[in-house]
């Protein structure tokens, strides 16, 4: 079981880092540039989106923090389309050398729409979860 100091460290440093990297990758993907830059930012986005989604949905073993380690009252609404984007599309496209990998053009309209939806979903969930978790930390400190 994690100590209160470890939880504070993760809430104050590691979770904001994951959100910062997700936001940075998302913003850079929407900037004009070299196509391979878009691919690199897409990969970074997929990685940090998956880390945050696993955290928020308590999809983790004992080696990683889960949202429930910080707040038992916050419940992330499961969005099946978000699950499909992260667990199928991004997973086989970025995190595995899968046989079902697509040759879709970088930055295609459908991909950009999915990324915008995923970005909004994860950002809002993180905000809600962190707000409740920080109230719990503050109550512990007082």
Q: Taking Cα atoms only, what radius of gyration do you get, to the nearest Å?
A: 16 Å
Query: How would you sum up the major sheet?
Result: none
Number of helices: 4
Q: Oligomer, anyone?
A: single chain
CATH architecture: Up-down Bundle
Into which percentage range does the β-strand content fall? under 5%
Distance between the termini: 22 Å
* E-strand count: 0
Whole-number tally of structural domains: 1
Based on secondary structure, the structural category is: mainly alpha
**Helix-strand string:** HHHH
CATH topology: Four Helix Bundle (Hemerythrin (Met), subunit A)
Q: Which class in CATH terms?
A: Mainly Alpha
**Mass-distribution shape:** globular
Measured as a percent range, the helix fraction is 55-70%
Taking pLDDT < 50 over at least 5 consecutive residues as the criterion, the unreliable ranges are none
Mean of pLDDT? 75
Q: How would you characterize this protein structure?
A:
Helix content is 68%, strand content 0%. The protein has four helices and no strands. It is globular. The two termini are 22 Å apart. It is mostly helical and 142 residues long. Helix 1 packs antiparallel against helix 2 and helix 2 crosses helix 3. It has one domain: Four Helix Bundle (Hemerythrin (Met), subunit A), CATH 1.20.120.
């Amino acid at each position: 079981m994690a100590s209160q100091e470890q939880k504070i460290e993760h809430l104050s440093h590691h979770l904001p880092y994951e959100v910062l990297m997700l936001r940075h990758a998302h913003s850079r993907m929407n900037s004009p540039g070299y196509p391979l830059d878009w691919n690199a930012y897409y990969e970074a986005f997929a990685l940090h989106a998956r880390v945050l989604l696993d955290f928020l949905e308590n999809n983790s073993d004992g080696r990683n923090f889960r949202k429930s380690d910080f707040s038992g009252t916050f419940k992330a609404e499961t969005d099946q389309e978000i699950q499909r984007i992260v667990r199928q599309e991004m997973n086989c496209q970025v995190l595995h050398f899968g046989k079902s990998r697509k040759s879709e053009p970088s930055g295609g309209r459908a991909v950009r729409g999915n990324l915008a939806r995923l970005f909004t979903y994860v950002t809002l969930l993180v905000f809600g979860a962190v707000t409740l978790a920080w109230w719990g930390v503050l109550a512990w400190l007082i």
